[in-house]
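User: Last request for today: this protein with heme C, please.
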Amino acid sequence: MLSKKQAKIFFLGGTILFMLIFIGMSVHSLMVGIPKNTNDSEINDQVKLGKQLWDKNNCMGCHTIMGEGAYYAPELTRVYTRRGEAYIQAVLTAPEGWGFRGRKMVKYDFTEEEVAGLMAFLKWMDKTDLNGFPPEPSLPAPLQ
Ligand code: HEC
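Assistant: Here's the final one, the structure of the complex with heme C:
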């Protein structure tokens, strides 16, 4: 059984120790974790232009990115790896609204510079570290 004094020291010692651990972890997240995960050294003017176009044209009205947005059209966090540059270029410059599986995308009249910006944004997004998001789908094995 702890005496009153020992209990006080135990309480204060524990509080201070875990407060220091919490502060240390927060500083580590801000100084090391977030810059590494967000790949922020690669955010250049082109990426910023792409992000502005992303917001202005309401891409999230149909798509999700980092899981945020609407569920009408495909998740785009890893689209750069999944589809590659040529495919995305074709989507963004399609003369008709892109879509041959039933659902259609809006037709945009992006300039070359704007397409390059959106491409840079999607490429940067592709390299962010989201701790495994989006997960690989666990599809059942095909029937033999
Ligand atoms: C009106 C809804 C809508 C809006 C708004 C929209 N899209 Fe799409 N997008 C779609 C649909 C639907 C598809 C899938 C069409 C298909 O594959 O048949 C698609 C496909 C794509 C693809 C290919 C994805 C893949 O995995 O095949 C990319 C890249 C893309 N869109 C980027 C964008 C960008 C960038 C914007 C904003 C500038 C945008 N989209 C706005 C509906 C939309």
